[in-house]
């Protein structure tokens, strides 16, 4: 079994991503790691080179600055990296996502177990979306998503988040997936407020809009927040100490939106019926 890891980066240092930690967390279980790096104004490329691991292969890319439709340029960059993967499995990890060292054997075992079963097209992960600080998680968005795809099937990425399988040229579907038995630790929304503000200012254009100035994480419904009771990956210790926000307070001006009210109803249904009904970009086989 050969496993390819991959990601894409641009201005990852300026934007406050724990990208070095992310790459180092996946290296023990991949045979190669493809890193597509776009034109950057910081030390993104040199920091990846400084990891100094022969598994890493850097591809310098060009971004289509005129592509501003719903993050499609992210999907383009994701696929540039994936198209250079040569493994049986292609393992995508975003720049603010980290694997826990204790869970690596589970991921390896899952890939080996399903390698020869063509019905399994992907492996999905549960997610910890840290929000505001690394001591709490948000649950309103997706809670499970595929990050490992079989590298012999016809797929495209409409954006950086998910894949579409093309059985026919004109119609796509989500991949059929089983659980990896592991989690992805997502730190993008607990980076420092200044770094988050910088990131939103730089990337908002790729979604066809301009973000309002970002003043903090506090304008959120507390019904979405849960305490984090697990342990962080050991590799994140330094980043959490120096780069993550330490305090969180709800904005006094917060008022629930219609979306918040709908989410509250969903949370109540989940609790009453012991179900998990968040958005999923895959068809579960298990």
What does this structure look like?
With 286 residues, the chain is an alpha/beta fold. The chain has a single domain, classed as Spore Coat Polysaccharide Biosynthesis Protein SpsA, Chain A. The protein is built from 7 helices and 14 strands. It has helices at 19-26, 44-50, 72-82, 104-114, 193-203, 237-242, 258-273, and strands spanning 3-9, 32-37, 56-60, 89-92, 97-98, 122-131, 133-138, 144-150, 155-156, 164-168, 171-173, 176-189, 225-227, 283-284. Strands 1, 2, 3, 4, 5, 6, 7, 8, 12, 13 and 14 form an 11-stranded mixed β-sheet that branches. Strands 9-10-11 form a 3-stranded antiparallel β-sheet, with no helix packed on it. β1 (3-9), α1 (19-26) and β2 (32-37) form a beta-alpha-beta unit. The two termini are 23 Å apart.
Layout of secondary structure:
Blueprint (H helix, E strand, L loop, with lengths): L2 E7 L9 H8 L5 E6 L6 H7 L5 E5 L11 H11 L6 E4 L4 E2 L5 H11 L7 E10 L1 E6 L5 E7 L4 E2 L7 E5 L2 E3 L2 E14 L3 H11 L21 E3 L9 H6 L15 H16 L9 E2 L2
Parallel strand pairs: 1-2, 1-4, 2-3, 6-12, 12-14
Antiparallel strand pairs: 4-8, 5-12, 6-7, 6-8, 7-13, 9-10, 10-11
Report a brief summary of the structure:
This protein is an alpha/beta fold.
